[in-house]
Every structure is written in structure tokens, then in C-alpha cells.
Amino acid sequence: MESKNNLENCGKADTHVHTKYSGFSKYSLAQFPESISEPGMVVKAAIRKGFDVLCITDHNSIAGALKAQQYAGKEIVVVIGEEVSTSEGEMIGLFLHERIDPELSAEETAKRIHEQDGIAIAPHPFSPHCQCLGRRVLHLDLDAIEVFNAIHRDPYSNRLASRNFIANGKAITGGSDAHSIEMVGNAYTTFSGSSADDLRASILHRSTSFGGEVTSLAACVRWSKGAALEIGKAAYNSLRGQIQHDDVLQARVDRIKKRNKIIALVASAMFLMPPIPHISGEIGERITRKKAKRIWDENSI
Fold first, then answer.
1. Domain definitions of the chain by residue range
2. Which residues, in sequence order, are bridge partners of residue 91?
3. How far is CA 17 from the centre of its chain?
4. At 196, is the secondary structure helix, strand, or coil?
5. Buried b vs exposed e over 182-220: b needs ≥16 C-beta within 10 Å?
6. Packing angle between helix 157-165 and helix 276-299, nearest 10 degrees?
7. What's the rounded Cα separation, in Å, for the pair 64 and 222?
8. Rounded distance between C-alpha atoms, residue 34 and residue 61, angstroms
9. Looking at the whole model, is its pTM more than 0.85?
């Protein structure tokens, strides 16, 4: 997808990035880490790709963002963010100082973000596979709408967000929603200037734009394989009593029952056997597209 603005003299920010501090999601009977990315490696990837600003938005946590700031140096600015699970769908808060509690109403979450002088953004508002706010965003005190999310590969979600909100009186953003190192920067927000303050001002003045490309299916498969490998390693180390307690992922796995660790180890090994990851990716892609088309039809009336 082409950016709506000329990128010359524009700053670039990835406003939606995850690290290993994003926790776990449940898929069927299994729990899967949202990301296995080390904060320092995420920062290096953003620098390597020429970004001015990097927003770390882990699920219901600012710990990864605080870690990432330690690696920023003078080459890039790291903004503390959080993708908050509200009772009505996910909401991103940027420029935060404290963590926002999950499971509050969307209205209360936006209020608490603004009480910190933060920026409230609705990510992937019509997602078929993430908790989203949908048309509720029309009635919330939000500063921006994410109209281009790189991991939404279906042909409907981003188009629906863009069509509904590109001229709706709110700023627009693009974010990679990166769950692996290679995904960082796949989508981005462009703004006038180059600093975090410039990004914030551009969002408030509704002068942002977006660019980038959707993340490839191959990259999504590699992410799932990497996550399965890390779960298997963590389960194996825990069973041997060699867990690294300063590692957030391994510490989480160490807390589960021994039986579940064995199941996790076996399931991870089975998942990594070719061609299972690729078949799973293709099946997931087809299911997601069908769900996205249904959401498109429901919101196109």
C-alpha cells in the first residue's frame, strides 16, 4: 500500500509493536505467546529500518516499553504505549506514564489515557481475529484510528477502516502490529517532523498519514514456528529445573502444572514438523478471510 503523503521530509513511526512482554493468548486448548521478541532487538530492527519513533504497545503492560527505552540511545525515540484490553475491544494508549488497567469500559479507558496526557487510538477497528471496537469508535473520545494494520492480510479489514474513518474527523495511523522482529516497520505512520513530540502534535492536528505493506504469510508462519520453539524450550528447561526466572516467557511456563508442561513440549514438537506450520497458516488464512468478509458485509449496509 502506498503512503498517502510524500515521504520526503516526513518522520516515520511504527505506532503498534509488541515484545515478549505481551503475554499469552489462548487458541483452542493451547496458550501461545503473543511475541517472543526481546525489546532490545525490536529497537535495533526499527533503527535498521530507518524509523524516527518506535511505539511499544504490549498487551496490558508497559514493561516491554520501559525495557526498550534503555536501548534507544540517540538514534531513535521509544514511546511508552500499551494495547489495553477494554471490555468492548482493544485500545492503544501512547505517551503513557503508568499502566492502564484492563477490562474497563472503552469510555473509561480513553479517559484514563487522556488523564496521563496520552493519545488514544483504536487499532484494527474491524478485525476478524482481534478484539476490536468496531463502529463503537464513532462515539468514543479517540484521537486516532488505525486504518492500516500490517498483519491484517485479508482484503477487507483495512479497507473498511479506511473507508469509514479516513475523513471522519480523527487522525489516521498505520502500524505493523509486529509480533516478531522481521515484522517491525511493515506498516507505519508518517508525520511532519521527526521527534516523538512531532508525532504527538501531528496526531492531535490530524495531519498524519500511513504507508507500508501487509506482512507476508511466510513471515506469519515463521513467527508461529518461533513461538512454538520457545514454548518447547521453556517447557523442557522447566522440567529439567533449569528455568531462567528473569525471562518472562520461561517464568510463565514454569508456573503451569507438570502435566501441562509435558503436553506443551510434545505439542510444540509436533507443530514444528513440516508441513504442519504451513498447512496451519493456510487454513487460518482462509478462516480469517471468511470472517473478514462477513464483517465487511455487515458494515457495508
1. 10-215, 218-299
2. 84
3. 5
4. helix
5. bbbbbbbbbbbbbebebbbebbeeeebbbbbebbeeebb
6. 30
7. 22
8. 13
9. yes
Q: Which of 241, 237, 263 is nearest to 249 (CA)?
A: 237
Cβ burial of 99 (10 Å; 0-12, 13-18, 19+) is middle
34/41 Cα distance (integer angstroms) = 16
Cis before 274 (ω within 30)? no
135's grid cell: 463502529
What residues form DSSP beta bridges with 209?
A: 190
Return per-residue pLDDT of the chain as tens, 301 residues: 544 444 557 999 999 999 999 999 876 556 789 999 999 999 999 999 999 999 999 999 999 999 999 999 899 999 999 999 999 999 999 999 999 999 999 999 999 999 999 999 999 999 999 999 999 998 999 999 999 999 999 999 999 999 877 657 899 999 999 999 999 999 999 999 999 999 999 999 999 999 999 999 999 999 999 999 999 999 999 999 998 888 999 999 999 999 999 999 999 999 999 999 999 999 999 999 999 999 999 997 6
Q: By CB neighbour count within 10 A (0-12 exposed, 13-18 middle, 19+ buried), where does 232 fall?
A: buried
What grid cell was written down for 280?
Answer: 496451519
Cα(174)–Cα(37) distance, integer angstroms: 20
The CATH fold assigned to 10-215 is: TIM Barrel (3.20.20)
**What is the spatial distance between Cα 46 and Cα 178, in angstroms, rounded to a whole number?**
11
Q: What 8-state DSSP symbol labels residue 180?
A: S
According to DSSP, the residues that pair with 212 across neighbouring strands are 187
Q: Residue 101 gets which letter from DSSP?
A: P
- Taking a C-beta distance cutoff of 8 angstroms, is the pair 235, 264 a contact? yes
DSSP 34: S
Helices 217-239 and 258-271 meet at what angle, rounded to 10? Answer: 140
C-alpha cell at 1: 500500500
> How many residues belong to the chain?
301
